[in-house]
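Take a record:
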Amino acid sequence: MGGSKGNKASNTHPSRVKKRKFHGNRHSIEQDTQFTSASAKKIGRFDVKVPVASNFGYCIIEFVSVFSALSASVICKDCKSEVAFSKSSLRGLGFNILLECKCDKQTKIKSCSLVGSACEINRRIVFAMRMLGVGHQGLNLFCGLMDICQGIGNSTYASILENIHIAASTVYDSIISFAATEEKDLNERAGNIRNNLTVSGDGTWKKRGFSSLFGVSTLIGKFTGKTLDSKVKSSFCATCNLWKGKKDSDPVAYETWFKNYQEECTANHTGSSGKMEIDAIVEMFQRSEDKHDAKYVTYVGDGDSKTFKGILNAEPYEDLLVIKKECVGHVEKRMGTRLRNAKKNNKGMGGKGAGKLTDKLINELTILRTGDSSTSRFCRRNAKRNLGHFLS
């Protein structure tokens, strides 16, 4: 077996200390973002292709059972003695498999591939857990219950999130750039000015009601139906929340911290939760020329006049007034909801037979109202007949 020397007891020159080159400790190695940034630049190029290895994958094994069986089945090719397997250099879920035998030679095998100098498995499990909605404490709890390891430290976890954010942001920017180019191509084919686009916008929140601390709004293209831009709004910052207790107890330290952290604060919204959608969509309109070299000349709304009013007040394009069109899907939904509520609150309207507000009639009325060209003739004929009985 090849590798470095064994333990100190076997060293023939105990007084001679070999100077080791510092390559970073297990914490600083995992926190490195240089490799991620370099890869992100490659992804940002349109011609990049990401190789996929079909034979690459992870599995969970019980270390002692598996490697005890291996130890009993293999021998060192040099001294012909049994080989002992053990773990070393633990770094989160990553480690080195150490092979030792009687000839005092050691071989180290990494348990996973590296991203730069960091263990890929640590970034992968953080990413996977985040996709499942599980945070840092949940990840460490999972590792403990599965008896895998003690988990990942706070600073390492934060650094891994930063690496994931760098990579994800670059991929996202590339995707929406492709989508915007495709939208402009289709818009031009339809006989419109290439860079004058029609978009639809909507927002969602972390939880229902008007007390959510987080919201996200998205704009999609008319022809592609793909996301052209999105904006996250937050009225809460975890770091600021931790420091707010020192604002009164240690104002000097708080002011020093705040000056350095102010630009990194994740809270980017003041006001009600409902206003998050308005502010986010307005900001996306204002940056459309810088982001995609395009103007969103027509806005397809969801019935909320406040958002369109916010766009008009902001005047994102000096030489152009944004036009609003109503989304027929939202009109149909609201009309159907109101008709069903009327049927529920007025028992005499429901039931079967002529003159009754049946579910079928409600569907026909809503489709007729929204002007669905494929069914409007059929609906108009039947709706007129039934509506006369209903209103008489």
The chain has 15 helices and ten strands. The two ends are 96 Å apart (CA to CA).
